[in-house]
Every structure is written in structure tokens, then in C-alpha cells.
Write a structure and sequence with these properties.
25% helix; Arc Repressor Mutant, subunit A; globular; alpha+beta; 249 residues; three-stranded antiparallel β-sheet; seven-stranded mixed β-sheet; 2 domains
Length: 249
């Protein structure tokens, strides 16, 4: 991780965006453009056609795909790529986010800090969409925690026009952390400390401070790739145990 270079890339991309267009109308969304330059400064390595697909980045070490959402759209591409290349999917997660609102006249509000803090568990809904890919030997995942500004249009259905509004752009400010999940055992990073040897999704929810539905989804993923196993039931919920190194499963 190189925070200084990341901030330099942010400045360069935003400078180019201001020269070409206004916020949100750049040919490529700002967050995606910054991450592409950060992970590979050589433009010749960007947008490379492989078979019937286009890879975000191709290097001597493999393919890098930057995906901000909708992992389901990656499935066909990943299935093709991983048979021939090492593929790293980079997924940015807002660590601290500031909201800025754009009204009909194009005026932008002052920043307001969102009370929500992002973390690795925010990736769970997207990982579910590609869970069959997670333990493929050529698949890698990089979760990137980033401080960023979120620009939204005041075009929602509520009285203040905020609920149901459309996101205009995400503009990164600083890189906070990178979490690499390179193999099945790395996914144990999604198991919080303090759990009993056997635990339910409700226990997992309390330990991770995420809701029960997301906890159940997380454990579904972890069970499918062999990080946890189901060992029974308790109070109508599955009981899980973490698979330790050397366990037969």
C-alpha cells in the first residue's frame, strides 16, 4: 500500500476530469479510474481484450479487475479468465464517507460526514454472487478501504429529495487499508475473535455488528469454501465450527 502515490493519482485523475468535463460526466467514473491508475500506471496495460472479454488491467502477473458493485456481471468473464490467468478482483469499500448533494441548478452542498464506517463485511453481498469462484486456485480478492466523497443528485422521492436519490459519483480521497484474500485460509479473516468453538449466525451477527441476514449470507459463503462447517442446530439455527488448519473437514 502506498498512500502518497494513491493521493497523487487522485489529484491527477481529478485534474484530468476537470479539464474534460464536470463531475459525474467523465468517460469513466472517478473511483474506477483512480484505482486503475493506482494498480497499473501504464495505460498500455489497460482495457486489454482477451478472448471475447476486455480486462481492466493485464500485467505479467495476471489480470486485475476493478469492480465497485454488481459482481454477478463478472461471473462469465471470471470463469473464462481464471482458466488461463491469475485474476485479482479489486473491490473498494468506503471506510469514511462524506456526502455532497447536487441540486437541479447544479449547485453542490457542503460536505456532511456519514455516520456509517465501512469494513470488510460490506463485501459479503457481492461475494455471495461469485462464491463458486472464491476457492479457485487462480482467483484473488483485494478489499480496499478508502475514504471518499459521494456525490448524489437531489432527485429522490422523499420531501427532501434524498431517499431514493441517484448516486452521481464516488471520488476517493485516501487509501486506508488493503486486505488480500489469496486462498481459502485467508477467508478466516472474516471470522471475528471472541466466538465460541461452536456458534450460530446470531452469535456471528453480534460479534461482527452486522445484521442477521448478512451474517447468514457470510456463513453460507464460508461454509461453501470450507472455512466453516455445520455441526448441528441450536434454537432452530445452524451451529458452525471453524475448520482449523489440518482438519479433514
Amino acid at each position: 500500500m502506498d498512500p502518497i502515490r494513491f493521493r497523487d493519482v487522485c489529484k491527477n485523475v481529478l485534474s484530468a476530469e476537470r479539464e474534460r468535463s464536470s463531475i459525474g460526466t467523465f468517460k469513466e467514473k472517478t473511483l474506477h479510474a483512480v484505482l486503475k491508475q493506482y494498480y497499473e500506471p501504464e495505460n498500455a496495460s489497460h482495457e486489454v481484450r482477451i478472448g471475447s472479454f476486455v480486462a481492466d488491467i493485464v500485467t505479467d502477473d495476471g489480470i486485475i479487475e476493478i469492480q465497485t458493485r454488481a459482481f454477478n456481471k463478472l461471473r462469465k468473464k471470471l470463469s473464462y479468465f481464471v482458466e488461463k490467468y491469475t485474476v485479482t478482483v479489486v473491490y473498494p469499500i468506503p471506510k469514511t464517507k462524506w456526502l455532497l448533494w447536487i441540486d437541479q441548478a447544479g449547485e453542490i452542498s457542503k460536505k456532511r460526514k456519514s455516520p456509517k464506517q465501512g469494513g470488510i463485511y460490506d463485501a459479503i453481498p457481492e461475494l455471495y454472487k461469485i462464491k463458486s469462484m472464491l476457492n479457485h486456485p487462480n482467483f484473488r480478492l483485494c478489499l480496499v478501504l478508502i475514504d471518499m466523497d459521494e456525490y448524489r443528485y437531489l432527485n429522490g422521492w422523499s420531501e427532501d429529495k434524498k431517499k431514493g436519490s441517484t448516486r452521481c459519483d464516488l471520488v476517493p480521497i485516501d487509501i486506508i487499508d488493503e486486505i488480500y484474500l489469496n486462498n481459502t485460509s485467508d477467508y478466516s479473516k472474516l471470522i471475528p475473535c471472541g466466538l465460541n468453538v461452536q456458534f450460530t449466525s446470531k452469535d456471528y451477527s453480534k460479534a461482527t455488528h452486522i445484521n442477521l441476514h448478512k451474517s447468514q449470507t457470510a456463513l453460507n459463503i464460508l461454509a461453501s469454501i470450507g472455512v466453516v462447517i455445520r455441526v448441528g442446530r441450536h434454537d432452530h439455527l445452524y451451529l458452525y465450527e471453524q475448520v482449523r488448519s489440518g482438519d479433514s473437514g
